[in-house]
Protein 1
Amino acid sequence: QKLAAKLQKAVKQFAGKEVRLQDTAEDIRDSDAKVKSVDGKYVVYFNYKKGEVWSLDGTIPLDKISTAAQEKILKALKGAYAKKTYVLDKEVVLNRLYDGKKEKLKDDYFSYQLTGKDFEAKWEVWGEAEFVSKVAIKLAKEELDPKSLEMAATTIKTAFDYDFEITDAQLHSNGDKYQMLLLKDNDVSLELDKKEGKVLNVSHKKRKKVTTNQEITEKDAKEVVAPLAKE
């Protein structure tokens, strides 16, 4: 009962009003769990062993984010992949950290999860610093560059003697720091660092995962993953 009151107090601080929470929580990991509001707009994250809330999510209107920030987010999306049109959804998920001991919201960090058709982006505010920390864009096979497609197909063929039929492709980008392509089909997945032109991970659902930090040439791929093909 005491924990329920703490959850209620935290979500009221966050939302600025009374919010009815669901009766059951969902386990996350270790002794962390989350409970959603009845209307589905809020989530409270807490540690049930310590009896402390540590974070909250809430759905807010897009216009709560400044136009300047929205423009930077759209620019980051265009920078990652220019050939799409990006329109931000009208609702955003705000995440804030919570001091469970003092039972109050922390004011030094805010993160905003923005979505749209086939993409998502994260805008973070740490004190004075504001930046786009990540964008993820879903791509059709036709939108992938031929070089990446060829590298993926060759690597998977060499690793598992398997023809890669891509069903899901996502581009993850963090500004100029990295651009990662995640490619999957029903059985196989592959991570490719686009900036470096390297395959980082390949894995097969029915077999093991392979990690490599070298640039995979066909010869390298054979050496790294030949033992797997025998399994």
Note: The chain has two domains: 2-135, 140-229.
Protein 2
Amino acid sequence: MEPTAEAQLTSKPEVPISATASSPVTMELKPRKAVMEAIEDIAYGSVAGVVGKYVEYPFDTVKVRLQSQPDHLPLRYRGPLDCFRQSIRADGFLGLYRGISAPLVGAALETSSLFFFEGIGRETIYALGFAPRGQDLPLSAMWLTGAFAGVFTSFILTPIELVKCKIQVPETESGGVAKASLKPLQVIKDVFRHQGLRGFWHGQLGTLIREAGGCAAWFGSKETATKLLRDANEKSARSEAELERMRATPLPLWQQAVAGASAGMAYNFLFFPADTIKSRMQTTPIGDPAQNRSFAKEGAALWKQAGLRGFYRGCGVTVLRSAPSSAFIFMVYDGLKKYLPMQ
């Protein structure tokens, strides 16, 4: 039966169910995906950072003690092995983990912030149209997003590292006897009482230089090494099917470790002098006249005392410990994202 004229006027055109159902879903999926990616970066980055910190912390303690030896006294440690030996003799092996509570928080914040801000950097490049969305970024862009992440992370990291450094390098009384080890809350109270809130960012320029340049190298080196290893693997493919399988699966675990280790070594070596100056600034006792030195003046004082070699004091042990630490960080982070996805 034909519809009446009135029915034709009042009836609404039929709309496919798929169109009405898919529109709101499509609009909601993108923000939801972005939120879940951010949560993954923060949660899994935190776990990876804590694991890496437990691996590297004894070496970091030795590094800071080597870096922060005062200008006006003979060197207390002849090198990394001597520092290890003296530290273990004085405090036992667990003494090398002195003050780890603050760095554990710092490691969780640092690593999660790095992955979080690096993700924002990637999204910014896609949003600005510098790279087609859905494709991997070129290696040059990965170095850029790493620097972007490092700049923002440095402001989170400086206060935590200041507390860590003051705990790792205990002040000495007259006669060279070390004072009782400090606790994080005690350090926080002392810094705030003498320098106010601004005092927690003492050494910020050194952290900024190290993190911006170092994180560019960290992400960039990891992706560069990954690409080189993947290209080498694909050359050995005997068929198109095997090639597609290689492209669809992660690198073998040992190759992931190599890529992560190369990232850590590049991060620590390239900008080590900035870290040395920062450590010296942050370990100067509260109330010492040298505490008011700027980044440039601290660098000049170190140059006068020890020359170029002084800027790389502790570099060897730092690069050594960064290899396994960084390898673990990337393997844990990538593994969690692959096997426990939140999306």
Note: The radius of gyration is 26 Å.
Protein 3
Amino acid sequence: MDGRRILLGDWTPVVRDGIDVLRVVLLGGAVGYAVTGRTGAAALLLVLGGVTVAARLVNLPRVYDLSVTAAMVLQGYGEVLGLYDEFLRFDDLVHVTLPMLTAPVIYIALARVEVVPDPRDETHLPHYVGIAVVTAALGIAVGALWEVYEWRSDAWFGTDLSEGNDDTNGDLVHDTLGSLVGAALLVAWARFGWGSVRRIPGVNTHEDVSA
């Protein structure tokens, strides 16, 4: 196996690349925590692992497949390993990186079901502006919904996720920054015509397959 194949993947039909290894890390972690009786941690990793499996099934470009998988690993193991409590700025890191990595993926998923235009449909400025606005809005909306979840979880289940208005406002600011960066990255991806599906190995041209 040469270096290019190690990096870009297509190792085997089942485990294609390092991204699949990350999926196994999530799902294997779920099994491990279930065996040791930590059912909450197991359930969290199982759900997040399921998200990464869904990302594989829709055949995302490698970069965005890696993005959503890395985001789920960061969120899942950050929670179960207590990194939010151990590292003061870990929460800020997550609130920037998750919208940055996942908002473009949500846009691509919506394009697959023809809710929004495919990034490759047009090449004029208003199209790119529209991609940026919608992608940023999706990321910000997801961040806001998460804050609502934290607020209600504390009230209904006795958790301690929300640390007050300052924490919530700070999280929303970081969500917004991450969403804006993610939107810019998706526009750049569309502008350079890199496509919205996983490339065929060895092919360095635009795909013929729409989102």
Note: The CA atoms of residues 153 and 159 lie 6 Å apart.
